[in-house]
Amino acid sequence: MKEIKIESILSVYDNLDELPADIVGLMDQAVLARENSYSPYSKFSVGAAILLDNNEIVLGSNQENASYPSGLCAERTAIYYAGSQYPKAKILKMAIIAGSRIRQTVTPIPPCGACRQAIAEYEVKQDSPIEIYFMGETGKVVKSHSLANLLPLVFDKSVL
Ligand code: THU
To answer: Whole-prediction pTM value?
Structure first.
């Protein structure tokens, strides 16, 4: 038996102002996307903005449903839109902003496991990293230089 250690290195910024202008701009787009969140059940709104290598920005927000599992997270809404509209473009960066409408969310909100799996698919498909930035409504911003960093031991096409 041997043990393996899995390490992920993330960058944590005190606030958005510490990030370069292009990331601030992408996060601004995520804020706009979040305004279209349809989340009457959880009252938790999430916005995602994706920058593609063709300079297009694709937005997504969480869309809920009275049949709860039929809803979809912001990140998957955005990434599936990108994959559908621009199948040949590479996904460079994704900015995510999330928070509750019931209480203030001041901690960075990472993408859920299902969204990580969905984003990982595109990272594998394009064979280049997708930078991920996520935050709450205000405060710290976390950067991961790739999705793989957030999802060690990924299940991907190599095992099929
Ligand atoms: N949600 C997202 O949009 N992204 C995540 O990564 C986590 C959760 C949404 C789904 C649901 O509409 C609400 O947040 C509460 O779970």
So the answer is: 0.97
Residue 159 domain flag: no
Annotated binding site: 62-68, 73, 112, 115
Ligand 1 centre distance from Cα of residue 1 (Å)? 38
Written as six digits, the tokens of 134 are 């996520």
Please indicate whether residue 111, judged by its CB atom, sits closer than 6 Å to ligand 1: yes
Report pLDDT digits (tens) over 92-151. Answer: 999 999 999 999 999 999 999 999 999 999 999 999 999 999 999 999 999 999 999 999
C-alpha 69/C-alpha 7 separation (Å) is 32
Question: Residue 4: inside a domain, yes or no?
Answer: no
Count of structural domains within the chain: 1
Residue 69 lies in domain: 10-152
- Report how far Cα 132 is from the mean position of its chain's Cα atoms: 6
| Radius of gyration of the CA atoms of the chain, in A | 16
On whether residue 83 sits in a domain, the answer given is yes
Is the distance from the beta carbon of residue 42 to the nearest atom of ligand 1 less than 6 Å?
A: yes
Query: CATH code at 121?
Result: 3.40.140.10
